[in-house]
Structures
1.
Amino acid sequence: MRDFLATAVAEGRLSHAYLFVGAPGSGKHEAAEALARCVVCPHGGDATCDECRRVAHRTHPDVRWLAPGSASGYLVAQVRELIEDAGLAPVRARTKVYVLERAELLRGNAANALLKTLEEPPEAVMFILCARTTAAMLPTIVSRCQQVPFRSVSPAAGAETVMRACACTPAEARMALAVAGTPARAVDFLKSPSRREVRRLVVGALDSLARDDSWDVLLAARDLVAAVAVPLADVRQAQEDALRESQDFLTAAALKQVEDANKRELTARERSGMMEALSAAESLLRDVLARCEGIPGGAVNDDAAAVVDRIAAGCDTAGALRAIEAVGRAADDLAHNVSPQLTLEVMLLRIKEALACPPSFR
Ligand SMILES: [Zn+2]
């Protein structure tokens, strides 16, 4: 896949619209970033220059990332704003790049609005649509894009990649993949003390649930929300630095757009930080389930084996299953804009209840 894009870039025959299709974790977003770098970097995407750094930090004014504006999909207003923006000249590069995550959530009027632009694309604009599947997409949108399929990497290959990049143990790589999702994100996770701290707090919160009262649960949720916000401070700093550097040559309108994009990025990052906390909880509870069922090996949280043992000693299979379900419901709550604090409180209380089912019900 990478080779295919590299050749296309080298030979100067890039399409104006790509559709990257594959399951979560198949590397679509990493490839979209790499392609965006190739397009805006004067050195062919060397990954080291200022342009490439801005793309990686998502602060490049000519590379915009969009995600659905609501739980049900892209908003028409979002697509209209994109089209208007696409009509403006690039700020730093020769071409502007728009990456649309979850493009399968382009529906109805939002999809139709984008279709017109894909049919008659403005000069010097590239669209990269990332979708999990094309099944529910407007066929005319699909046919306007050059499709690039992505295959998921096997867990073993993923762990191998993480170990090579971080020089970590196989157990650490397995845990990081379970928490962060993709090899690239797992590597970032292992290198980020603040994100590892969130996971440490999640494990601690689950460990002490059996002894906690409602007030303790509330405090645990509060500490978690605060910990999730710590990595955001770095992102905000990077955004402010980039914005300061751009102030001289950006118009007020363009500055406003970068600021809006920055705000959206912070929201998206907070959400992904919360999702990572939920993944950490789910992964630990799956180990508890395996222990309850007496399934040997396959545990992901080797460093928290004692915690898994303690929780498994106090519950049964049905309780572990209901606890895992509580994590899934928390993910739904977040998708419906329930506050992080409330989501975590409710989740922890549900898990506590599930894990503490009285012996008469076992
Ligand atoms: Zn570069």
2.
Amino acid sequence: MKNRNAEVARFITIPLSHYCEKARWALDRAALPYREEPHIPLLHRLSTKRSGGGTVPVLIHAGRCFVESTAILVLADNFSGGALYPQDAGQRHQVESLVARFDRELGPHTRRWAYAQLLSDTALLRRIWATRAPRAETLLLPVIVPLARRLVRAGYRVTPESGQRSIERVHGIFREVEERLRDGRRYLVGDRFSAADLGFAALAAPVLFPAGCRAVLPALDEVPAAVREEVLRLRDTDAGRFALRLYLQERDTPAAARSATA
Ligand SMILES: N[C@@H](CCC(=O)N[C@@H](CS)C(=O)NCC(=O)O)C(=O)O
């Protein structure tokens, strides 16, 4: 008899991570069975290194390790028979370029801005990093938080000034997205949801705190007023509204269920 467990992928994450949310969204949409293995920062490396990676997410599926979120999107697309990338070569190229651009710029800048605002709040960090992580790991948080905070600050070059520059870059990317949407289209490329829309919405999560997002984010009422105001400002843009709509309409719709009901 076939061992069904062997077909369940292992998905190594830090629950707060927006790159993990990007991959999780793709796996959910493709209805690719996986078991999430959430970790607190730093301890994730014990698992990712074993799989030949470093950052999260990492997915181990059918004996292969996928150590980049975009590689997980491509796998999810193949698994589902095309749920995320268009057939048309020109459109596919546009989707790939947008995904790469969001990976390179949007993700790092939304993250840096959020960390610049929240990294000094030890209680908040502890609570967010502990959510969904194994209890044995959360017991180490009093030791890990100061260390991880230093590494995050140095690794992502987080300062009040860089945080400010990052949010300006985020506004710039939002304006570019709005430019694309100006003709009334519902999706960034073509007339259906693709990896480009998913990449934008997932990597914008740290500046939108969207309802429906499965990454662990603070509640709006527990962050400083300046953060709340910036989030509300970005939510109230066309690009912000677009991302929030994607969470409402596209986050919980596996491709399998969609084609069964189409
Ligand atoms: N290019 C990577 C970026 C992933 C990434 O930056 N992950 C962050 C969390 S948002 C991470 O793992 N940070 C901890 C580390 O660098 O070990 C991808 O798309 O998967």
3.
Amino acid sequence: MNFQIQCALVFSALCVRICLPQKPDMCAGVPGIPGTPGQMGLPGRDGQKGKPGLQGPQGLRGSQGLSGREGPAGPKGEPGKSGEKGPKGDTGPAASMDHELHIRLSELTHRVISLEGVLRLENQIQKAGQKLFAAIGNQVDFNQSLALCYDVGGRVATPKNKAENIAILNFVKKYKRYAYLGITHSETTGLFQYSDGMPANYTNWGENEPNGNGKEKCVEMHKNGFWNDKDCNQNHLTVCEF
Ligand SMILES: [Ca+2]
């Protein structure tokens, strides 16, 4: 077997390239066994910066954050329009107060009436219509009687009808003393008048009285209930009215 055939059998591929018919001397010798692989080389240098990548898909929505701090107060707004008038409300504290005052007034009235009853039972007071009369059995002149009754919130007893005259007479009889009345003679009018200047339109003069002709300025009640004009400096019983 010639060399060309051996080449074709053993190394056909190499021989086809190397052992050309026109240059048979170039196929001399058998190629050696491939050497062992070399060690891995050092990492290559970094490559050039690549082009920007495409935008990725939108991420999931995060949870709501904590509330922020309260901001500063805003400017004052315009006044609103008046609303429609509402329905009338229930009766408020005034009514309950009136009710409480009414109860208190009723209690006080009851107590006053009770005290009046006690005083009348002991003949300390006499009642005629809306008037109350009281006396303590003293003996003073007219001016002192005026002051005494004024000091206790009343005035000297001034009978304006028969019932009031009888009420005063009861004290005259009880203390067996004459009493001054709240009636005096007026030099201006020449008439007997009340303390407010009004003429006395009710009188109960005794026989031939008044006979002082303006010189007896005061009026006293006798034990028979009749009146007599008299000086104002007598010591008489003080009877006050309220
Ligand atoms: Ca007289």
